[in-house]
Amino acid sequence: MIDAFHLARAQFGFTVAFHIIFPAFSIGLASFLMVLEGLWLRTGKAVYLDLFRYWIKIFSIGFAMGVVSGLVMSYQFGTNWSQYAEKAGPVIGPVMAYEVLTAFFLEAGFLGVMLFGMQRVGRKLHFLATCMVAGGTLLSAFWILSVNSWMQTPAGFAVGADGRMYPTDYWQVIFNPSVFGRVPHMVLASYLVVAFIVSGVAAWHMLHDRATPAVRKMFSMAMWMAAIVAPLQIAMGDIHGLNTLEHQPMKIAAMEGDWTPSGPDGAPLILFGLPNMARQRTYDKIEIPHLSSLILTHSWDGRVPGLKQVPPADRPYAPVVFWTFRVMVGLGFAMFGLGALSLLARRRGTLFTSRWLHRLALVMAPAPIVAMLCGWMTTEIGRQPYTVYGVLRTIDSVSPIALPGIATSLAVFAVVYFIVFGAGIMVILRMMAKPPVSGEPDINPDKPIRSAGIHPGLAGAVPAGSGGASPFPAE
Fold this sequence. Notes:
It is a single chain. The protein is mainly α. Helix content is 66%, strand content 6%. Helix 1 (4-43) runs antiparallel to helix 4 (123-152) and helix 8 packs across helix 10. The protein is globular, with a radius of gyration of 23 Å. The two termini are 18 Å apart.
C-alpha cells in the first residue's frame, strides 16, 4: 500500500527528473556558446557567429525551463521535507545561499547582455558576458553538487542536543570527501548531453540533404567533443566509484548485486542478474571472475563488500540500483564507441558523407540524457534509506502531511509538467528542425517571440538563474 511517505518521495523524484535535464543542457550549451563566440572573434569566420545565434535561442528556452523547474523543488523542501530542512538547514542553508550570492547574480547580471546585447555593446564586452554566464552555470553546479555531495559523504558538522546539525568547519562541509568526484562527473555529463544533442541535430539535417557549412561545422565540433569527453567521463566514473567504495560501501554492493563480502579469491563482476531483496541473493547471474575486484580495488583479489554486512533496514533497494547502473555504464561505452567511430570516419574523410554514422548520431542523441537520469537514480536510491548518509533517515525527513494532500499535488504537478514542459520541448524541437542559415538573425528584444521562435505561452518564463542540479534530498 502506498503511504504519504513513499508518495512524497515519488513526487520529488518526478519533479527532479524533469529538472535535472534542463540545467545540464544549460551548463553544456553555455560553454559551447562561449567557444563559438570565441572562435568567431579569433577567426572572423561567419559560420561560428551563425551557430552562436542559432543555439542561443534554444539556450534561452532551456535556461528558462531549468529555472522554473528548480523553483518547484525549492518549495518542496518546506512542504514535503520540512524535517530535513529543519535538521540539516544550518549546514546546507548557507551553502545554497552562496550559490545565490555568486552564481545566481553572475548569471542574472550578464544574461540580458548575452541574449540581447550583440548589437548594443562591443564585441569584447559581449564575449565577457557570455563567459560570465558560462562560468555562472559551472559555479552554480559546484555549489549545488557540494550540497548533494555533503548529503552523500557528510563532514564538518556536529549534531546538537536538539537533534539539528550544526557546521563545525565549513571548508569540510563544502569540500567534503566526494565533491571532487561528483562535480567533474556532472559537468562532463552536461558536456556529453550537449555534444550528442548538437550532433543529433546536425545529423538530422545532413540526412535530409541540408549539409550546409554551418551544419557540417557543428557536427564536426560535436563529434570532437564526444570523442574527447566520453573517455574522460569513463575515467572519472572509475575515480568516483573508488570514492563511493570507501565512503558508501552498501551503495557499491547494491550496484554490483553482491550480498556477501568477497573472500580472499576476489569478487566476480556480475554482468547481468536479478537481485532479490526478500531472498537476499541475485538469481540468473552471468559473471566474469575477479573482474569486480579488479575494477573496484584495482587488485585481482581485492575485497568487495556485500549487502548482508548491514541489517535489511539499512540496505538500498538493489534491483533498481543494479539495473540503472548497468544502463548508465552501457550507454557510456556506447557514446565512447560513437566518438571512436567518428575519429575513424574523420581519418577516412567520410565524416560528412557517411550516412550510417549520421543515423547512429541521430539515434544516440538522447543517450546521455538517459545515462544521466540512470546515474542520478543510482546515486540517490543507492543512498537510501538515508537523506544524509548514515546520519538522517529519509523516513525522519518527511513533513507530517496526509496522503490526500500529497496525492493531489502530485497529480497537479504531473498534469502541469507534461503540458508546460511538453510545450517547451516541442518549441525547442521545432527550432532544431530548422537548420542554421547564413546571416542567422539575433534575438530581437523588441519582438522576442517572433524572432526567437518562442511560443507566446512561454514568453512569461523569464530566465533568472540556472536552477542548478538539485540536492535531491529524498528520491
